[in-house]
Amino acid sequence: MSLTKDTDGSLELGLYTRNPGYQDEEGGGSAADTIHADPGEKHESDAAEYTQIKPYAGMPKEVLLLYSSQARYRVPREILFWLTVACTLALVTLTVTVIVMSPRCLSWWQASPVYQVYTRSFRDSDGDGVGDLKGIQEQLDHFEYLNIKSVWISPFYRSPMRDFGYDVADFRSIDPLFGTMQDFEDLLGEMQKKGLKLIMDFIPNHTSDQHRWFNLSRTREPHYKDYYVWTDCNATAPRPNNWVSVFGNSSWTYDDVRGQCYLHQFLKEQPDLNFRNLHVRKEITDIIHFWLEKGVDGFRMDAVKHLLEAAHLRDEPQVDPNKAPESVTSEWDLHHDYTTSQLGLHDLLRDWRAEMDIYSREPGRYRFMVTESYDYHEVDKTMMYYGTPLVKESDFPFNFYLLDLPQNTSGLWVQHLVHLWMANIPKGQWPNWVVSQESLYLHPPPPTFSFSNLPNSPLHLLFYFSNLHCYQVGNHDKPRIASSAGQTYIRVINMLLLTLPGTPTTYYGEEIGMENINVTDSQIQDPAGKYNASASRDPQRSPMQWSGDMNAGFNNKTNITWLPVHPDYSSVNVEVQKKDEGSVLAQYRFLNKLRQSELPLHRGWFCYVHADASVFSYLRELDGLDRAFLMVLNFGKESAITDLSSIRELPEQLKVLMSTNQVSEGKVLQKSRILTEAGEGLMIQYSTLIHFNPNHPEQCYVSEKTCYLSAMDILYKC
Ligand SMILES: [Ca+2]
Ligand SMILES: [Ca+2]
């Protein structure tokens, strides 16, 4: 192609375009002024001539190329190019650094306490006296008020209620007592709208004897024949081995239809499933899928240590070898070498975890697993449920050690119970704390004295003997903390629960300080209580106290409640306490809010500072943050003065941010004289540039170390 100057001074663009906008500087030109822009024909004189041409809009590629090769255009262009490359690399590096350096966000089950709803007792919507799913839905605002996101609902599967729902007749349907599947879906939908997470109870170890599978198994239907653990036995003396049920007596029952004995580690109406059968495993996995598909956010896996039994069915060793075998009838008479924590148990849980992870991939839809296993004297067994760094299992196993708090209200005892978990938790795992639960009524037996199992530290040795003593005097605690520890301690225990590192579990009613009810023999509802009145769980299952209205607002349609309402309901109820700034409820709410908003409380270090017969004191701090919290909790029987002057990291003067005794709030205390009344808890906020944890690493714990960069207001791994 060639460019030719036309007689009017504009350029003729070969065969293509005419450019009237171009004017030669000298105002004209001849037909001989032809510029050869074809690269093949280009030469120096052309180029020199071409430089005289000014750029113009719409110039063709060839002209543009000639211009662009000039230094004044090329150099800025190259500078721009390399600048872009450098900026892109810097951005990529920054992004990778931020990703690598950022600590993991806390998941919903870490950020919020878990609130346990006992369905029968929370709220009765239809007036039949028993709480139900619609009732829970009616009270969802309560969780919002408390700033609680995670709600664990006790079983509502179809059940003959021999163990109040822990005997499931159909894992895929709702018991009519609690509502319908539509009610469940409405409840779940409403919870999701409010950002609440629903955790279901899951009961894999056994079914009800009314379950279809059991009926098919006892008639030897080929597919179902081995769904349960069957063995030959004598019909008149059906005890194929010495195994005993958690509820007492032999764990074997003879079945007339099949002519064999079946195993039940709990009630005889709760036959154990045979997890060595692959069809059973598949059934249970399908049920997990069924509920995850519905949208539930997690499972509390019930009684997991009982899932598998040794296939050889040999006798378990007796705790007292001299005891007559026929008098071995209690769970505590045997070492459960063959009926709990069997090889393969963790594989089952890991498989279920993997199934749940499939449903966890959507952002914000993490499915949570908590396991229930009460291995009181074998903390290492409990810790195994956390899994390993490479193979995940439960997010945490429930920590029941604080249930023993009422046995010996002292600062040292509380520190000991807390330390049992903190000293054994695998690195990087998330702690949790339970102080009350409806389903636990069985207590481990007095530990047997033995030189071989003496603890090796002096502190633990002291508690070993103190523990022996507690059991021996028969201080049998009851699950509601206000009743077992005493009303004096309810506030300080809530303060402990909400300021320890990890997830607290709150049993319904603890947030208002509900107490156990007295249940007469004729009023007993709990099947376990009918079997053994002292084991009844009824006292801690009384209806939730919502208001001073009829039936405490649990049921305002009829005058029926399945268990009596506590007589203190006119003063101990949600409505009254909402109006009182100093109430148990107000303090719970304040502490929970603080727990979720203050970095040291939910992500920071936890350090022991002091413990004595009355006081347990610890602090919460975060590297890089100059704000820290000192907790001074008096679990003793009398007031105490605590001297923390030896803790040089603390300022001389300490201002009380919150006290369980409102009169102490705002007080300025000397660190050498911190006064607390019995049952009083102080939260002291202070400013610091010197942190405690670097100088006392052996007294401090953090799940995942994180630092705060104040200049940018961000957290980073450090
Ligand atoms: Ca009802
Ligand atoms: Ca089992």
Automatic annotation (TrEMBL):
Matching entries from SMART domains are given as: Aamy
Q: Which domain of life is it from?
A: Eukaryota
Q: Where is the Glycosyl hydrolase family 13 catalytic domain?
A: 116-541
Q: Which GO terms describe its biological process?
A: amino acid transport; carbohydrate metabolic process
Primary site of residence: membrane
What organism is the protein native to? Answer: Cottoperca gobio (Frogmouth)
Q: Which residues cross the membrane?
A: 79-101
* Protein's UniProt keywords contain Thylakoid: no
Report how it sits in the membrane: Single-pass type II membrane protein
Q: Which UniProt keywords apply?
A: Amino-acid transport, Cell membrane, Disulfide bond, Glycoprotein, Membrane, Phosphoprotein, Signal-anchor, Transmembrane, Transmembrane helix, Transport
Record protein name field: Amino acid transporter heavy chain SLC3A1
User: Self-association or partners: how does it assemble?
Assistant: Disulfide-linked heterodimer composed of the catalytic light subunit SLC7A9 and the heavy subunit SLC3A1. The heterodimer is the minimal functional unit. Assembles in non-covalently linked heterotetramers (dimers of heterodimers) and higher order oligomers; the oligomerization is mediated by SLC3A1 likely to prevent degradation in the endoplasmic reticulum and facilitate heteromer trafficking to the plasma membrane. Disulfide-linked heterodimer composed of the catalytic light subunit SLC7A13 and the heavy subunit SLC3A1.
